[in-house]
Amino acid sequence: MEFVFHVIKNVNSDLSMIRLSIHGVIVHFLKQYEHRINVDLSKLLKIKVDDFIYFYEEEVQEIREISKDLLNELKSGRLDHEIVEYRQQYGMNEDDISKEDLIELALHLCHLCDTTLSTGKLLMAYGSAFDWISTGV
Hints:
By secondary structure, the protein is an alpha+beta fold. 47% of the residues lie in helices and 18% in strands. The longest helix has 21 residues, at 99-119.
């Protein structure tokens, strides 16, 4: 399962100028290690397959803070062991998931929230059962 975020003009619009897809491997990692990450990820991880969730200004600000907190956790090195452990558990390597991938996710999600807030648009997210790369995870 992957998460897909879009910046949209309004609830009735499906036109999106910006899209962020979070690959299933990263979603699975975040769910598996949610209890070890010192960030409340529940706002992000509540998305289910075929759910369409619209986030308004206050919620977008919350997601932005979650992204910043996750970025700080990653940059501090507190999740390095979990990333290595996850790769070993599923027979993956750094090409499949790395600290840099997770940092990039946090940066992009923060930027998406900034764009949403500065333009007065909405942030919409949905869960997709389709992944561009099937990993069996």
